[in-house]
C-alpha cells in the first residue's frame, strides 16, 4: 500500500511538472532599446519569473546598437569612449546604481580620464567670466559668498531637497501607478508642475539674481536647454540634483550600462530593426494580441507590447498603429509632448583663449576647462556648454591624429605655433602645469559642445587656435518640460496590454526616471498577463 501511494504521488508530481513545463510562454514585445526598453525587459522578466509565468521578450531597436539616447563615442586611436549625453547620474538614483553594481561596472564620482582632480568651471556671459569655480572648496565658498550671499543658495538648496525627497517616495509605493497624476498625488506633488521655476523662485525674499542666472538657470540650460521662465518647477529641482547628491558615471561610457541591462533581461535583441506597423488583433481564444511588422517585412505577434521610445524617435518613418481603441494616444498624440533637438560636437584641438578674453593675454592661462553659458549670451555664443572630457599628452595627440588620418607634419606645425604663441605672451608650459606626469599641459584636449544648432567649422575656428578631429551628432534629447496640470500627461496604459513608460518624461526626463517608469509599466504588464 505504501509503495502504491508513493508511486501515485511521484506520478502526480512528475505529471504536474510536465504540465507546467508545457505552458506556452507569454510573448512580450518592446519597441526601443534605450534605457527605457532595456530596463523594461529586465523588470518584465523579473516580474514574470516571480509570477511563475514563462515569458519570451523581444526588443526591437532600429539602430545598430543598444543605448538609445545613451550613446558613447570612441576617441580615435584609443579605447576610450565618451558619452554624447546622459553622462551622469547621482548616488540616490537607486535603480541605476543597483544595475551598475549588478553588472560590475567601474563607477565613480570623478572622471579618471581627465587626470584633473578639480577641473575649473567658468560661467560665461558672452563677454566675460563673472564667476569661476576653481575646484578649491575654500576659495570657491569665499568667492560664492561674496557674489551670491548665503540666503538665496540656501533657499534654493532647501526647496530642491524638499521636493527631491517627495519624489523619492516613488520608490516606496507598493502598487503600480496608473497615471502620472496618480503618482503626483501619491508623492504630494499634485499641482507642482503647473508653475514655472521663475514663479516658485519669485517667492524667495530678495533673491540674488546673479545666483539664479549664473548657477540655477545654467543648470536648467545644460540639462534641458530651457530657461527658468519656461521650465516647470520640477525640471529646475531635478537640474539641481548634483548640488544635493553626488554625481557619478560609468567609466568609458554609460552606454555599457544600458547594454548590460538588456543582456541581463535575457531578451531577444533585434538590432537594425525598425518597427513599421503595429496592429491590435484578437487571438483564436479572443485574447488581445499585437501584430508587429518591421521595416523589412518580418511579422511577429505578442501578448503585450511596450512602446519604450518617445514617439518623436519615429518621426522619420512613423509607426502605423491599427485597430487601437478610439482616441488612443498613439493615434492622436494628445496631449502633445515636444522634444528638444540637441546638437553634440566633440573636438580634438587647442582652444583659443583670445576668444574668451578678447586679447587680454594676462588672463589666457585662466581659461576654465569647462564653460557654461548664461541665457543672455545666446545672441553672441553659439554653444550652451563646453566640457573638457580628456587632456591629451603630446604622444596621445599624435596617436589620435594618426588614427584620424591627420599627418604628423600638421600636428608638429600646430605644436610649433603653440610654442611661438607662448613665447610671444611670455608664458611657459610649466606655468600651465596640471600634473607631474605626461599629461602636463591643458592645451590639447577632447572637448564636448552642447548647442541648439549644429556647430559649423567657421564657428569652431573662432573658438580654436587649431583642431584636428570632430564628431557631430544630434538627437531628440529630452522633452520640453513645460508646465502641465496633473491630467495633461500621456497615458501609461495606451490600450489593453499596450504600455508607454515614456509618458513619465514630461514630468522628469533622466536615465533613472526612465527605469522607474519602465519598472512601473512592467508591473502593470505582469499584473495584466498574470490575470489573463
Chain-averaged pLDDT: 89
* Biggest beta sheet attributes: 7 strands, mixed
Q: Distance N terminus to C terminus?
A: 42 Å
As a percent range, the share of helical residues equals: 25-40%
Number of discrete helical segments: 17
Stretches where pLDDT is under 50 for at least 5 consecutive residues are: 1-20, 430-441
Protein structure class: alpha/beta
CA-based gyration radius: 26 Å
Number of strands: 22
Spatial order of strands in the largest sheet? 8-7-17-18-19-16-20
Shape: globular
How much beta, percentage-wise?
Answer: 15-25%
Describe the structure.
- The structure is a single chain.
- With 532 residues, this protein is of the alpha/beta class.
- The chain is built from 17 helices and 22 strands.
- It has helices at 2-21, 35-50, 94-102, 137-148, 151-168, 180-186, 197-201, 209-224, 233-239, 241-244, 255-264, 329-332, 353-357, 394-403, 408-424, 457-463, 511-531; strands at 26-31, 55-60, 72-74, 81-83, 89-90, 107-108, 121-124, 131-133, 247-250, 268-270, 275-282, 288-294, 299-302, 304-307, 320-322, 339-351, 370-373, 385-391, 445-451, 464-479, 493-495, 498-499.
- The strands form five sheets. A seven-stranded mixed beta sheet has the order 8-7-17-18-19-16-20. A six-stranded mixed beta sheet has the order 10-2-1-14-22-21, covered by helices on one side. A four-stranded mixed beta sheet has the order 13-12-11-15, with no helix packed on it.
- A hairpin with a 2-residue loop joins β21 (493-495) and β22.
- The longest helix is centred in the C-terminal third of the chain and has 21 residues, at 511-531.
- The chain is globular.
- The two termini are 42 Å apart.
- Mean pLDDT is 89; it is low at 1-20 and 430-441.
- Belongs to the prenylcysteine oxidase family.
- Keywords: FAD, Flavoprotein, Glycoprotein, Oxidoreductase, Signal.
- Residues 161-530 form the Prenylcysteine lyase domain.
- One of its GO terms (molecular function) is prenylcysteine oxidase activity.
- Residues 1-20 form the signal peptide.
Amino acid at each position: 500500500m505504501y509503495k502504491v501511494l508513493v508511486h501515485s504521488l511521484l506520478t502526480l508530481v512528475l505529471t504536474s511538472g510536465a504540465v507546467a513545463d508545457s505552458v506556452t510562454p507569454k510573448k512580450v514585445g518592446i519597441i526601443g532599446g534605450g534605457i527605457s526598453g532595456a530596463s523594461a525587459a529586465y523588470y518584465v522578466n523579473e516580474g514574470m519569473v516571480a509570477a511563475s509565468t514563462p515569458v519570451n521578450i523581444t526588443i526591437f531597436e532600429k539602430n545598430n546598437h543598444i543605448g538609445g539616447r545613451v550613446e558613447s563615442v570612441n576617441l580615435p586611436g584609443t579605447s576610450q569612449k565618451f558619452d554624447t549625453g546622459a553622462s551622469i547620474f547621482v548616488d540616490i538614483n537607486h535603480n541605476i546604481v543597483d544595475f551598475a553594481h549588478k553588472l560590475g561596472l567601474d563607477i565613480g564620482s570623478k572622471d579618471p580620464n581627465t587626470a584633473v582632480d578639480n577641473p575649473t568651471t567658468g560661467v560665461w556671459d558672452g563677454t566675460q567670466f563673472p564667476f569661476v569655480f576653481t575646484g578649491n572648496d575654500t576659495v570657491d565658498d569665499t568667492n560664492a559668498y561674496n557674489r551670491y550671499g548665503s540666503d538665496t543658495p540656501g533657499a534654493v538648496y532647501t526647496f530642491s531637497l524638499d521636493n527631491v525627497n517627495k519624489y523619492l517616495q516613488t520608490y516606496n509605493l507598493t502598487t503600480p501607478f496608473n497615471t502620472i497624476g496618480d503618482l503626483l498625488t501619491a508623492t504630494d506633488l499634485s499641482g507642482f508642475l503647473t508653475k514655472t521655476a521663475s514663479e516658485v523662485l519669485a517667492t524667495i525674499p530678495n533673491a540674488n539674481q546673479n545666483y539664479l542666472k549664473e548657477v540655477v538657470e545654467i543648470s536648467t540650460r545644460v540639462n534641458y536647454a530651457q530657461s527658468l521662465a519656461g521650465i516647470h518647477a520640477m525640471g529646475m529641482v531635478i537640474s539641481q540634483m548634483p548640488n544635493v547628491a553626488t554625481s557619478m558615471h560609468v567609466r568609458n561610457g554609460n552606454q555599457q550600462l544600458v547594454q548590460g541591462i538588456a543582456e541581463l533581461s535575457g531578451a531577444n535583441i533585434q538590432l537594425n530593426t525598425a518597427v513599421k506597423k503595429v496592429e491590435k488583433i484578437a487571438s483564436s481564444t479572443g485574447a488581445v494580441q499585437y501584430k508587429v511588422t518591421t521595416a523589412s517585412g518580418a511579422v511577429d505577434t505578442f501578448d503585450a507590447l511596450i512602446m519604450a521610445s518617445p514617439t518623436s524617435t519615429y518621426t522619420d518613418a512613423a509607426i502605423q498603429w491599427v485597430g487601437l481603441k478610439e482616441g488612443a494616444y498613439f493615434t492622436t498624440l494628445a496631449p502633445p509632448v515636444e522634444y528638444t533637438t540637441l546638437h553634440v560636437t566633440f573636438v580634438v584641438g587647442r582652444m583659443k583663449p583670445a576668444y574668451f578674453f578678447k586679447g587680454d593675454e594676462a588672463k589666457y592661462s585662466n581659461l576654465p576647462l569647462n564653460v557654461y553659458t548664461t541665457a543672455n549670451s545666446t545672441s553672441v555664443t553659439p554653444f550652451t556648454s563646453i566640457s573638457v572630457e580628456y587632456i591629451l599628452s603630446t604622444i596621445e595627440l599624435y596617436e589620435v591624429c594618426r588614427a584620424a588620418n591627420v599627418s604628423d607634419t600638421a600636428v608638429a606645425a600646430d605644436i610649433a605655433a603653440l610654442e611661438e604663441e607662448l613665447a610671444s605672451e611670455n608664458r611657459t608650459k610649466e606655468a600651465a602645469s596640471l600634473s607631474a606626469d605626461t599629461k602636463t599641459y591643458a592645451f590639447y584636449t577632447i572637448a564636448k559642445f552642447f548647442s541648439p544648432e549644429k556647430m559649423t567649422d567657421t564657428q569652431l575656428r573662432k573658438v580654436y587656435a587649431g583642431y584636428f578631429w570632430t564628431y557631430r551628432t544630434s538627437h531628440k534629447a529630452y522633452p520640453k518640460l513645460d508646465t502641465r496640470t496633473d491630467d495633461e500627461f500621456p497615458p501609461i496604459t495606451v490600450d489593453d496590454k499596450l504600455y508607454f513608460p515614456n509618458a513619465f518624461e514630461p514630468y522628469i526626463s533622466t536615465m533613472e526616471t526612465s527605469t522607474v517608469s519602465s519598472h512601473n509599466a512592467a508591473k502593470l504588464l505582469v499584473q495584466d498577463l498574470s490575470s489573463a
